[in-house]
Sequence to fold (284 residues):
Amino acid sequence: MPNSLIAARDRFAARHPEQRIVLGGREWGYVEAGRSGPALLLIPGTLGRGDILWQQIDALEGRARIVAVTYPGSGGIAEWADDLAELCSRLGLKHVAVLGSSLGGYLAQYFAAEYPHIVERLIAANTLHVVAGIAERPPYSSDLNHAPIEELRAGFGRGLGAWRDAHPEQTELVDLLMAEVGGRISEPELRARLNALKHGPELPPLGLPRERIATIESADDPLIPPPMREAVRTRLNPSVAYRFEWGGHFPYVARPELYTALLEEQLGLAATHDSWGEGELRAR
Fold:
């Protein structure tokens, strides 16, 4: 039976093919959509290219200017933050709201700290606040530069398979992610993403006022445990802390309408979704 999520993503990718650009000597990919309205920079996690946020881009592109990036095959958090600043300059984006998820959330926090004159709003989603100790945990405990790529991909596959067994209703989501880690994300890109957190710098102090900061988390996120979620909120002191009662580590795919609704709120756009959903919590 065809996977409707993969089919929808592929239709989006056909309409919005990924562009390539060299920044700081590294080749990035990016998807650009929309020509007017508030600027939104989307930074995915380890298991997605820029178009993994296609549902939000589709819903917002008529009302916002959106750039969603795909990581290069080299560099790390500090270098990537500099690259993103250069990307914004080249695209004429003087001020942006930045949403980063997981790895992207860590990068977004670093970027916002280093370039507060560019980052108008920070939305840190399903992410972490420190990388201390991460090198002792799989897959980061592997030799990420020399371990067979099949082993690294298989490790992600085992974790995703366990999530599918526990949540069979999300089989299509798991298959989408398996396709990403199975080859749609190239070997150099996957190694660079893992190394970026394993060797990531400590986050600099963040100077944004709290009214320009929001966080997103999921109660059932298997990768970001409750103490880490609390630590992220404590560090960032957000004006709004969104919490999905379910959605796992990828609520932007699993709960697309609600995710779009919170982005509308953060960007000051008229809502197209009538409610936050039964059992959905939104804390201020």
